[in-house]
## 1
Amino acid sequence: MSSQLIAHPGGPLRGEIPLPGDKSISHRAVIFGSLAEGESRIHHLLEGEDVLRTVAAFRAMGVDARREPGGVWRIRGVGLDGLSEPGDVLDMGNSGTGMRLLAGLLAGQPFFSVLTGDDSLRGRPMGRVAVPLVRMGARILGRDNNRCAPLAIQGTELIGIDYLSPVASAQVKTAVLLAGLTASGRTSVSEPALSRDHTERMLTAFGVPVERDGLIVSVTGRPRLQGLELTVPGDISSAAFPMVAALLVPDSEVTLIGVGINPSRTGLLDLLLAMGADIELLNARDAGGEPVADLRVRHSRLRGIRVAPEVVPRAIDEFPIFALAAACAEGETLVTGAEELRVKESDRIHAIALGLGRQGARIEELPDGLRIQGRPEGLEGGSVAEAFGDHRVAMTLMVSGLAAARAVTVRGRANVETSFPGFADTMGILGGRIERVAGEKES
């Protein structure tokens, strides 16, 4: 039997909640902690499936990474040259971040390794990572002319390059920079627009000199990483769901504690503020080299906007929930330059257009985005929505049910625990009602 989730409309959402640790930063904390010399202690690590797959991969390569009482993770780093050949295939599950970043690191290790994942991950594009790595001298074999996993990697000596990336992608940038850590000479990545810069910030915190010149980031091979103690900020991508729920459900007021507000990740926040959202940033502070604040969010009447393509990389993971906000706003919202959404855990443009369209949203698919005619009176709900196995689509559809006139049933085997463990319970703390029920047997 497959499980389904039913999100029910109800009263206002109120209260304050902490957010799970940032997934992007958590992956990097595990990777750099494993490559460092000495011990690292990581507080507030996201313990979702994706990050735990990265932990398991490094354990398979000889790293002692364990959770201590109280939730602190202790990682005893082995240095750049201390990893050992894994005895089995490294299964990254549904984690595109884990696979692409590890491909960059493993390309320069003196051993053989294989990266694989679930059906969804094996269908996602890996060529954008393989191309620059092969230019550095990497030996990588994959399905469909190296475009898809499984990826077989015979580690070898790499040479630093200057890489002009055709896309603004933090995963591509980080994979190349990770390869550059073991390469000879200098490795640079130039992007067409700013992508999230967690890698540069964290490398600096671990003691690695990082050069930035506009949109060009460079490292020189063979640095020494030093273990440290850091706290992972709350994930702004996770914060997006209760944030938009509070904006849409009348009389709501929610405070989200300890959210990372890195400027390369605040695209959704900027878009919502442009739409007229009532969001206050309180208690601004720093955590592990990352800016953090508490966000107070109140119910707001939103208006449609035009999203500039250059903003897209800063909000790429949040576009499903942004589309819901736009569907309930006054006027038209236009998103272009977001073709990357076609190759996420699902085709998110299609999944969101279908799921919200069945609830009465006036939403049109474009090749690289969406055109949305808002319904300020709210969506009708009362539908069965397919998540296509995508956790962010599933959470968006659940939030739509909390704000719609009638309940929304979400199906599609989406593993929300991948990025937001306890999502339904967290929304319940605020007053939202999301229940799990048995669905029909899947063939």
## 2
Amino acid sequence: MNNERMSRILIGPVVSEKSTRIGDQNRQVVFRVLPDASKFEIRKAVEKMFDVTVTGVQVMNVKGKVKRFGQTVGRRSDWKKAYVTLAEGSDIDFVGAE
């Protein structure tokens, strides 16, 4: 796997009440990832970018919602998210606070 693809796999963190609660309880971090990314690629990308040890990866395909835009009906895009479990002692700090 080349470095360019590895840097594009992780689109960004998912910041919500559920992802924060999961992070506090289970040492998991939730990322929005490319739709064609595999568990192995996600694991390698997280380990390389954040210098942590990953013990597990669970992926989930999220279906886009149907929304109305005035009189027309539209649909949001489908996307994929990954729940990444970190090893004991590993932590990812998105805020940068010390």
